[in-house]
Design a protein that fits this description.
Elements lengths: L5 H51 L6 E6 L2 E7 L6 E10 L10 E4 L15 E7 L6 E7 L6
Antiparallel strand pairs: 1-2, 1-4, 2-3, 5-6
């Protein structure tokens, strides 16, 4: 007799289904990591924009980024140590795919573009992570103005 038995066909179908499911899950994880990397680059660009606006004193003010649980917002600083007067310019909203952030402010000094003296000594680290905890991206802003 030539041909395949029903059990052989079911085994092949089962193995194929496992391979397809594994490829799909891998693709979903890749998409999440790619989204995290892209968002990290956008946030880093927002910090660089705030720093650049502070150096040029655009609007007659220095600039900073206000961080809330799901948003990064580029704002003009006010006279307080690291507060904001408004002048909203750029917003990055995080999707529910990302874990909530700790609220804070990152302020840059006018002319130098260094971190404002009220910031933490050495550097500030901003971490953006996926809600499932599988990956995260960190942005470091050093007192001397270096952003990486």
């Amino acid at each position: 007799m030539k041909g395949y038995t029903l059990i052989e066909l079911l085994v092949v179908i089962g193995i194929t289904a496992i391979l397809v499911a594994s490829a799909f899950l891998s693709l979903v994880g890749y998409e999440a990591r790619r989204d995290l990397e892209f968002t990290g680059k956008r946030v880093e660009a927002l910090f660089r924009d705030a720093q650049s606006r502070s150096v040029t004193q655009e609007g007659g003010q220095s600039w900073g980024v206000q961080i809330t649980t799901n948003q990064f917002q580029l704002l003009q600083r006010d006279a307080s140590p690291c507060g904001f007067a408004g002048g909203q310019s750029g917003i990055i909203n995080l999707s529910t795919r990302f874990a909530p952030l700790a609220s804070s402010n990152v302020c840059f000094d006018a002319v130098t573009g260094f971190l404002a003296p009220q910031q933490a000594a050495g550097f500030v680290t901003i971490t953006i992570g996926l809600a499932d905890g599988s990956a995260n991206a960190s942005i470091k802003i050093y007192n001397n103005g270096r952003i990486e």
